[in-house]
Amino acid sequence: MPDKTKNKVLIIEDEQDIRTIYAEVLQNAGYVVDQAPNGEVGGDKIKNSEWSILLLDIMLPGKDGLKILKDLKETPELKKGPVIVLTNLNSEHIIQEAFKLGADGYLIKSEVNPDKVVEEVGRFSGVQA
């Protein structure tokens, strides 16, 4: 059985409660989780920490998720693994833009529960819960 602890999830989400819930369910599922409360801290963690999956909100203070995706696209060596956008923005334009900029998945927060997020992380990491 693959070792999930080798999969470090970086969550960039400005809402503390949401960030905490996703961190807890992912840790309970065996993943190592790092967190960032905004785009600036998230950008630093993308560059300077180990991660293998990124859960990225779009609406962030300062540097938003689309700008982070653009940075990853412009500097491919920063993208250490799949990027799953996790946002409440359900606009076809934003969804298309996120995929154009390199997102690997797109989840609408209001349409998924935390177990579904763990399932998606497992699918993208190749390590099922």
Report on the structure:
Helix content is 42%, strand content 18%. It is an alpha/beta fold and 129 residues long. The protein has one domain (4-125): Response regulator (Rossmann fold, 3-Layer(aba) Sandwich), CATH 3.40.50. Strand 1, helix 1 and strand 2 form a beta-alpha-beta unit. Helix 1 crosses helix 5. The mean pLDDT is 92. The modification 4-aspartylphosphate is found at residue 57. This is Response regulatory domain-containing protein.
Strand fraction equals 15-25%
Corresponding CATH architecture: 3-Layer(aba) Sandwich
The CATH class name reads Alpha Beta
- End-to-end Cα distance, whole Å, is 11 Å
- Strand-and-helix sequence, N→C? EHEHEHEHEH
- How many domains? The number is 1
Biggest sheet overview = 5 strands, parallel
Mean of pLDDT: 92
Q: What topology, given as strand order, has the largest sheet?
A: 2-1-3-4-5
Shape: globular
Radius of gyration: 13 Å
- Look up the CATH topology: Rossmann fold
> Count of helical segments?
5
Question: How many strand elements?
Answer: 5
CATH superfamily: Response regulator
Low-confidence stretches: none
Structural class: alpha/beta
